Amino acid sequence: MSDPAFLSLRERFFRWLDGRHAGRILFFPDITDWYKARRTPPGEPQPYEPGQIIYDDDPFHRQNHDMPAPYRDWTLLDFYRNFGCGCPIHLYEWRDNLPDGYRRTVQRDGRLEITEIATPPGTVRQIRTQAADGSYCITEHFAKSIQDLDILLWAARHTVLQIQPGRIRKALAALGDFGVIDIPVGRSPFGTFIHDAMGLFNGLYALHDEPRAVERFLDGLREPFLETIRAAAETEARVVIISDHADDYLIPPPLYAKYCVPVYQEACAILHPAGQIVSTHVDGNLRGLLPLFQRTGIDLLDGCTPAPMSNYDVRELSQALAGRLFAYCGIPSALFMGNWSESEILGFAERIEQESRGRMILNVGDILSPEGQIEAVIRVGEWARE
């Protein structure tokens, strides 16, 4: 048996999820938003998504908005190399989605990003508005009516997916033995409906007023979603993530049980025989969803952040983890904003480790904000290696 002291962070990560944990809890913080903010002046669009890899040869690293002097010449990956923390990466670019018989255009107008999907049945439009920190939020959803759902479904059925294995190999090589990639397969049908198609309030009204039409849309999205799952199963990526951003508010537990759990089970039935770990991104308040996660077949909850930033504590999360279910559990990012002492932050880390039972991987919940203190993250990393 290998001595854990001589295993790489990547090797320890997969052993941990196999139930063979040893030594101190693993620490895999996502600092991408903080890093991008140090390289990008306020108000400028962020060129990368949260958790996205930025390769060492990218010119972006030469931008210098307000990077602290000791780290001015460091790339994103240098932080992980030099401080010995695990690096979690979402490899969004593992596939290309190519329109077949329709047109998808993206235009920018000031602080607006306008996406238009033009199909034979009709055209729909989404608007995202840029926030002060450079990120975007949806301010106009694609579907303004039930009829617009048919247009989105037509586009989903006429999109060709192309795997890019070279991009996966490039990311694996760049991360070496200190990082882990997952490949995002997008949202489940219900996640797509709530987040992208209609939005929370209009979506819930539509589900109440026109349940058959909404469920016809969800049933229609099932096969394109599972097609993406089957494509992911053919890759050499070890972790596949479903990006539903579920919480008690966005996807209430009864709807999660009815519309998400069965699809997750189908996805796991495809990915588990391929030897892959299935993850899902969750956000915010989870107390109502915690009892349901066991039913999904999911292996790893991504993004768990306990109180004071949500409605559940570390022990409640720990009690929900059993069987094959593990979780990233974050020290709440609010603690890294400069108002909490080092001893308070490390005390929170110790509490997570004590409650973990070997089923949690420590991170910053769920990402270090642009205003976060990188020195505090470095100190947690030192603690985790002691």
Write the layout of secondary structure elements.
Layout: H1 9-17, H2 32-39, H3 76-83, E1 87-90, E2 95-99, E3 103-109, E4 112-119, E5 122-130, E6 136-140, H4 146-157, E7 159-163, H5 165-175, E8 179-184, H6 189-197, H7 200-209, H8 211-233, E9 239-246, H9 253-271, E10 277-282, H10 293-296, E11 300-304, H11 314-320, E12 326-332, H12 342-356, E13 360-365, H13 374-385
Parallel strand pairs: 1-8, 8-9, 9-10, 10-11, 11-12, 12-13
Antiparallel strand pairs: 2-7, 3-4, 4-5, 5-6
Helix pairs in contact: 4-8, 6-7, 7-8, 8-9, 12-13
Q: How would you sum up this structure, described in words?
A:
This protein is an alpha/beta fold and 386 residues long. The chain has one domain: TIM Barrel. The chain has helices at 9-17, 32-39, 76-83, 146-157, 165-175, 189-197, 200-209, 211-233, 253-271, 293-296, 314-320, 342-356, 374-385; strands at 87-90, 95-99, 103-109, 112-119, 122-130, 136-140, 159-163, 179-184, 239-246, 277-282, 300-304, 326-332, 360-365. Strands 1-8-9-10-11-12-13 form a seven-stranded parallel sheet. A four-stranded antiparallel sheet has the order 3-4-5-6. A hairpin with a 2-residue loop joins strand 3 (103-109) and strand 4 (112-119). Helix 6 packs across helix 7 (200-209) and helix 7 crosses helix 8. The protein is globular. The protein starts with 8 loop residues before the first helix and ends with a helix. The relative contact order is 0.13. The mean pLDDT is 95.
